[in-house]
Amino acid sequence: MAPEKEEEEIMRVKITGKCRVKPNKKLGRRECQLVTFDLPYIAFQYNQKLMVYKGDEYEDRVGKLKDGLGVVLEDFYQLAGKLAKDEDWVFRVEYDDDMEGVEVLEAKAEWIGVEDLTVEEGTSTLKELIPSNGILNSEGHHRPLLSVQLTKLKDGLAMGLAFNHAILDGTSTWHFMSSWAQICSGLPSISLLPFLDRTKVRNTKVKFQLSPPDQNGSSTDDAKPVYQPLRERVFKFSESGIDKIKSEINSNIPSGGSKPFSTFQSLAVHIWRHVTQARQLKPEDYTVFTFFADCRKRVDPPMPESYFGNLIQAIFTVTAAGLLSMNPPEFGASMIQKAIETHDAKAIEERNKQFESAPKVYQFKDAGVNCVAVGSSPRFPVYEVDFGWGKPETVRSGINNKFDGMVYLYPGKSGGRSIDVEISLEAGAMERLEKDKEFVLEVN
């Protein structure tokens, strides 16, 4: 009977209004070709984020957010456009003044308190607070490239966001969010303009033909089996916990050229090893670690931090579960470190040429068996997004692009070097991970 009750509660999130927001100024027609860095994400789902703020004055906040959105879209107008393609299946993002713009939904869920959304355990209520569940980026030719849902809570505001991932990566997402917050906070203009010409980093026209199943809107049904068996949990690693993990792994740096391990490398191998153990893999089973590297400073010539689009590539490393578990943490950390260091401009160029010679449609579920895949970054300034009423109480991801082993990293709300680790795992593995004292020992 519990699932029925849960579904009943979910349906109490009620949409009360819909509108579209466009740039305040007339901009005319603008087009920008999608490039090789963008195309692998066409068949992924929209990238979802949830930001929760305390306080009343819902109507005033919604009005301020809409007004600020109209201003910030003057510079980030691509988000108010749509996907398009020519007769050769070369994709682009285009904007014109007669397009509808960004979708803004207003909703009420006054039975939910801010505290209910800051719990460590994943909650199905999150699904109803973020738009575009199960929607593929390829549907951006007829859906808004950005949807925002503003839900009135018992004691606050939930801002659910769904970005078309073919249009932008995490760095660009938080550049946009920070800029929007600057306008709402009273600044006359944003502090850093987006660099919008993607062809400066790559100008190869890629004919990228999608098969019909990737465009027919069936993604919602296809996604359900992926979500149902999973549990989601946020593990909060304190600054002292992060320092302990990092110092222990750096107390015995392997010979053979390894440098001191970074915070990311130290935490990454900690997660990889303990998730692998929780899965109870056989020693001979392979396990994969993958993450998305920001290539802005890796490409030649380097691109500015303000480059707007996708400028990331997935980096993979693989080993046998037995080797990962039986060797000290430095073994896996060295593999991750080497993968990062060797992904230079030459490797990026080779990856691009390989993709362009035989474009492949990737799906978010293609990471591989026994995979730990890391998205987002603790460097993103998610808790600095202040629209004029304080910092968010929590930042979470939605249900899209989730599979067994998906990990999102966020800075901890307490600041410093604290990090929140949001993990999706098969239920049995999650239960074992929660009981793993060596994993949770460093967690607040």
From TrEMBL:
Record organism: Populus alba x Populus x berolinensis
Family per similarity comment: Belongs to the plant acyltransferase family.
UniProt-recorded name of the protein: BAHD acyltransferase DCR-like
Domain of life: Eukaryota
GO MF terms held by the record: acyltransferase activity
Protein keywords: Acyltransferase, Transferase
A Pfam family the protein falls into: Transferase
